[in-house]
Predict the 3D structure of the following.
Amino acid sequence: MVTRVYETRIAAPVEALRAFHESVEALVKLTPPGTKVEIIGEDVAVREGALHVLRIRQGPLTTVWKARLSDVTENGFVDTMEAGPAKYWRHHHEFLPDGEGCLLRDTVTFQAPGGPLSPVVHALFLNRQVDAMFAHRHQVTKRELEQNRVEPGHEAG
């Protein structure tokens, strides 16, 4: 099993970071190029016990991903894969105040299928793919929140 931690400081209120991650539109924006994500389940809320069901297409491969939400607080939530392409996937989303901005921290613990070949799959493919996915997600989140920031006392125009 592998654990990776990704952090990005964002010049926006922590409430804006949380709201962005709670929006259905964010899922589309956070999806890396070459991948298509479709929500096929009815439950899209970020709430304790919600089951999010997605169809993910990457090239010729399509898979259904079912993730159960837990530990939902104002500062984040956890999604744990119940069905999907990995042997194990747990993603802790954290939205933390940081001075006048906020910190986005994603802690992901995962294991590829493949039994004794799992370490080889991680080394040759999966670690880089997960790193690239979270680099994209953090870059998009930072851009979206910092470009659309409304300063206190001003209205969006």
